[in-house]
Amino acid sequence: MQKENEGQDDVIKVGTDDFNIDPDYFETLLDRNANKIEETKKEVAWNIEWHTLKLNKLKNKFYDVLDFEKYTVKAMRTVHYVTTFRVPKMSEFLNKNIEQFRALIA
After folding, report:
1. Is the pTM of this model over 0.85?
2. How far is 65 from 88, CA to CA, in rounded Å?
3. In 10 A of CB 99, how many CB atoms?
4. What is the pLDDT of residues 41-77, one digit of tens each?
5. What sign has the CA pseudo-torsion 24, 26, 27, 33?
6. Distance between CA 36 and CA 67 in Å, rounded?
7. Closest of 67, 40, 45 to residue 53, by C-alpha
8. What's the pLDDT tens digit per position in 22-41?
9. How far from the centroid of its chain's Cα atoms is residue 54's Cα?
10. Three-state DSSP class for 6?
C-alpha cells in the first residue's frame, strides 16, 4: 500500500500518519508484546538458574569428592591405551592420622 502511495503525485499522496488508523491500539499491542517478552525472559532466566543449581549439586556430589579424574592416554601408532583410576579425596580423619604418623616418624 505504501509503495503504491509513493508512486502517486504529491497532490494525491496520503501522509504516513494517515496509514496508522488507531495509534492507541498500536501502542497497546506494543506494550502487550513488551510485557510478553519480559515475562518470557523471566521464565528463561528462572529455568537457566534452576538447571545451573542442579548441575552444581551434581558436580558437588560426584566430582568435588575426587582427588583427580579418570584419564586415558592412547598410543598413536597402536591400539594400546592406559587409563587411570578415579581417586576420591582422603577424609579429614585420615589426613589427620597421616600427619600424626609423619610426626611420630620424624
Report:
1. no
2. 6
3. 10
4. 999 999 999 999 999 999 988 888 888 778 899 999 9
5. positive
6. 47
7. 45
8. 778 888 999 999 999 999 99
9. 12
10. helix
